[in-house]
Amino acid sequence: MKISRVLVVGSLNIDMVLKIDRMPETGENLFARDFSMLPGGKGNNQAIACARLGLMVYMIGKIGDDDFGARLRMNLEQENVDFSFVTRQSLTHSGLAFIFIDQYGENRIIVAPGANMKLGVGDLENASQLFETCEFLILQLEVPHDVVKKAIQHAHDYGVKVILNPAPAQSFPVEILGENDFITPNQYEAEVLSGVRIRTLDDAVKAVKVLDERCAARKVITLGEKGALASDQKNRFLHLFPRQIDVQDTTAAGDAFNAGLAFGLSTGMDWISTLQLANNAGAIACTRVGAQSALPYMRDIKNFSSTHGEGEFRYVDL
Ligand code: RIB
Asked: Which of 20, 181, 203, 218 could form a disulfide with 162 if both were Cys (CB 3.0 to 4.6 A apart)?
């Protein structure tokens, strides 16, 4: 199998994870049940998730001039991600994410972006050789939008395909994506981008149709306990059924899903197998606590498929 090269332009955070029974009321103090401090950030997670699946991964990002930054770079090295273009920014802290996980495994996250928001277009220019050599570019929205837009333009100039994971939810000019690109919002992100309130699969189909009017990229909406909805090259809609799993923590499930997508696409798998692999990677992440601690290796996905099957899907009738 050919080992593909992917470039991730995105955020790096240190995650401060608190397991709690409930959120405090105003003026109330509560004890957490557990605390851990781990490397995270959507860009960082997606880069490491791709490397764990066997891709050759390069990252462009910014860390602060602090101990957290040193830890983030050391972690990238241990995970076999090239961090030559993850540079330090003085006078700010590395990105921090405060993650609250409730007893249902659902999370609430507040990010203090710090150095991530100092990533600039110049950082892309400095790393232009990566655009020449990588086959896929993976992006999220935890760094400035002008950098994301410029990275998409560079990718198109060099014939690199783009996977945009428009997370966290915010509006973005998706029109700039091309027909060879992919966009992977979750339910809330798709609502923000399309203006369609999504409660059912039909709503998700409506959201994809609205997005179709705005951009030519192929769309995949991850729908949590409802699975995922994807368009294909023949404008059909595929519903990937949710996997039967014991959800512990949904943090980084989207990151694992996007890495699975990148792996399948960049190694030439067909679209349905790619979606199944991504769906299974996301499901495995939900069975584990934390962000990077939850990201599967390829052997985990193979084991999961052998015990749970590849996953069911159907075409959605309109
Ligand atoms: O996608 C999960 C990530 O979102 C966490 O690691 C946290 O850093 C936030 O950015």
From this structure: 181
- Asked if 255 is an active-site residue, the reply is yes
Q: What distance in Å separates the CA atoms of residue 287 and residue 210, rounded to the nearest whole number? A: 33
Is-above-0.85 flag for pTM?
yes
User: What pLDDT does 134 receive?
Assistant: 97
Q: Indicate whether 121 pLDDT > 80.
A: yes
**Tokens 């981008």 sit on residue:** 193
Name the one residue in this structure whose structure tokens are 């959800």. Answer: 247
Nearest one of 315, 184, 185 to 237, comparing CA atoms: 315
CATH of the domain at 154: 3.40.1190.20
Identify the helix (H) or strand (E) that includes residue 131: helix 128-133
Check the CA dihedral 182-165-139-284 and report its sign. negative
189 lines ligand 1 (CB under 6 A): no
**Residues 255, 270, 300, 317: which is the catalytic one?**
255
Whether residue 255 has its Cβ less than 6 Å from ligand 1: yes
CB atoms within 10 A of CB 158: 14
> Is residue 29 domain-resident?
no
Domain total in the chain? 1
